[in-house]
Amino acid sequence: MTVSQFPDPKSGAVTIRFSDVSKHFPPDVVALNDVSFDVRAGEVVVLLGHSGSGKSTLLRQVDGLQRASSGTVSVLGADVGSMRGARARALRRRVGFVFQQFELVGGLTVLENVCTGALGRLRGPRLGLLSYPRSVRREALGQLERVGLAAQAFQRADTLSGGQQQRAAVARALVQRPEILLADEPVASLDPESAAQVMRLIREISVEQGLTVLCSLHQLDLALSWGDRIIGLRSGEVVLDAPSVGLSRESAMEVYTQPAMRSVLTAAG
Ligand SMILES: Nc1ncnc2c1ncn2[C@@H]1O[C@H](COP(=O)(O)OP(=O)(O)OP(=O)(O)O)[C@@H](O)[C@H]1O
Q1: Domain range list for the chain
Q2: The ABC transporter domain covers which part of the protein (predicted)?
């Protein structure tokens, strides 16, 4: 698949909207500074930027893990900052999260790990694979097939390679049936081949299911290959917002090399 074959992402509804969002940490850290952008349904948006530029902080605003100091974060039509309790949990169930370190339970089977993705919609605790409804086990197996790990379903998760563990983590996130997938450096600890495989998988699933993806990456080439759009952050400010089609490596590299300048902004539409 090449980028030019991807559907036009600009036709979907707005699923994530940042309006003048700033996030301060005491005493004087400005992690996000007046950040505004929209993400539309089915878009794969990659966040690029130096370590400490604010990528993780931005992702944490989307599922309400952190609250903005000022400005508004709107997700699936709801103001995240005003949500508490059950409403906040309900929104969080619609947002899946994939992390750099996979966060699988090593001593459990791959399948049971994937079943835990359904916990948000099940009542009560679960212990052991058979404590999950058959429908969930079936769905989890289906997702493992989707990510190419059906043969490993009954292995302990800690026997998988890093790339396989991340694919299992993607399957777990999909069992949650999210409308938005957040990924915080999902391929940072993988070899280049596994990294490309995981990014291709996330891209394909987004196209198949209309899933909105917001993903931080350090690998520029992967960002250009698999993102619809690149948002570059520097010192908490958006310094680039452009479709990846037609964006040169050199222009994208300016996120890392140029000082924050509003003038390099390119609206994505
Ligand atoms: N809980 C916190 N308390 C204080 N400062 C924080 C906190 N979380 C993040 N920061 C600071 O906010 C800034 C942005 O951090 P953030 O983790 O969002 O960057 P990042 O781009 O994700 O970095 P990396 O690529 O290393 O993960 C950094 O200066 C960081 O030290």
Answers
A1: 12-94+178-269, 106-176
A2: 16-260
Residue 259 has a CB neighbour count (10 Å cut-off) of 10
Superfamily of domain 12-94+178-269: P-loop containing nucleotide triphosphate hydrolases (3.40.50.300)
With a 6 A CB cut-off, is 232 part of the ligand 1 pocket? no
* 57 CB within 6 A, ligand 1: yes
Task: Summarize pLDDT for 137-163 with one digit per residue, the tens.
Answer: 999 999 999 999 999 999 999 999 999
Dihedral sign computed on CA atoms, order 230, 235, 236, 240: negative
Nearest CA to ligand 1 atom 5: 25
Residue reference for tokens 């917001």: 214
Closest residue to atom 20 of ligand 1, CA basis: 52
Locate the DSSP E strands across the chain. 14-25, 29-40, 44-48, 70-75, 78-79, 95-98, 180-184, 212-216, 229-234, 237-243
Supply 210's token pair.
């209309």
* Cβ–Cβ under 8 Å, residues 156 and 107: yes
Instruction: Tell me what the mean pLDDT of segment 33-57 comes to.
Output: 97
